[in-house]
Amino acid sequence: MASSxxxxxxxxxxxxxxxxxxxxxxxRQAFRMIVERYQHMVYSVAYNVLGNHADAEDAAQDAFLRCxxxxxxxxxxASFSTWLFRLAxxxxxxxxxxxxxxxxxxxxxxxxxxxxxxxxxxxAATIARALADLPEDYxxxxxxxxVYGLPYxxxxxxxxxxxxxxxxxxxxxxxxxxxxxxAEREA
Length: 187
Description:
With about 190 residues, the protein is mainly alpha-helical. The protein is built from 10 helices and no strands. The protein folds into 2 domains: about 1-105, Rna Polymerase Sigma Factor, Chain: A; about 115-185, Orthogonal Bundle (Arc Repressor Mutant, subunit A), CATH 1.10.10.10. The protein starts with 5 loop residues before the first helix and ends with a helix.
């Protein structure tokens, strides 16, 4: 991914403790600020897990609903963005389990559509399709590592898997992705 695109994938700065306290107390404007700050990140996580816009929007809405209900119990043991990231990931995985089907991407995310060709014959839409074809066990850790830049230990925490397993899954996901992109380029 081009270095100029890196800023698009960074997690937003955490709200202040005062803003979180106001949102936890039910102040609508404070919670609205949280939603506006994190909506792109939450939707993006859901889209990368589910592979289509409608399901991603539903999962993002579910993640914010879970956030609203759980915010009074948030204790800042992890950063707020990591906590919300975990809620988003859980909401998306729960939606995927409910459907019990492999997602069929119907559209390419807006951010991917903005990027130019990343290599000869490879553009962001091609990468999005290749990611959607990866098995879920490889796709989620690979996206969390290579798209969002999360360290392996955070991915292990978010997915509830051992660190070594996460490293293997990312390695295998990258290898599978590389094969799919090579086949795409040759086609």
